[in-house]
Design a protein that fits this description.
The protein has one domain. The chain is 31% helix and 26% strand. It is built from three helices and five strands, in the order ααβββββα. Strand 4 (70-74) and strand 5 form a beta hairpin. Residues 1-22 have a biased composition (Basic and acidic residues).
């Protein structure tokens, strides 16, 4: 009886999307800038990037599929880069949250 109740309470396993994979790569690249970068498992998933130096320096970045790659878009709609330019994109986001100079 306990096993059937446990099976009912379990949530289905969510398969990571392509977008989540790209956000994970971006989070890894951002780790070199000393910022916090966490993937938020929402629909669509997004990357919340914040500066440990300021509680106001926070940016949410989504990953959007395009014809040939994926684009990273800031919360205010600006294209920050693509999945083919993770390093450049990470630098832009670090600058947005004040972790680096331009």
């Amino acid at each position: 009886m306990a096993q059937s109740r446990q099976a009912k309470d379990e949530q289905p396993t969510r398969v990571p999307s392509e977008e989540s994979g790209h956000l994970g790569k971006l989070a890894t690249e951002l780790s070199g800038y000393g910022v916090e970068a966490d993937i938020v498992d929402a629909e669509p998933p997004y990357l919340r990037v914040s500066s440990p130096d300021s509680k106001y320096a926070v940016e949410d970045v989504i990953c959007e599929r395009r014809e040939h790659d994926c684009a990273f878009i800031a919360s205010f709609g600006v294209h920050l880069g693509s999945s083919g330019s993770i390093g450049v994109t990470a630098h832009k986001i670090a600058w947005l949250v004040g972790a680096t100079e331009q």
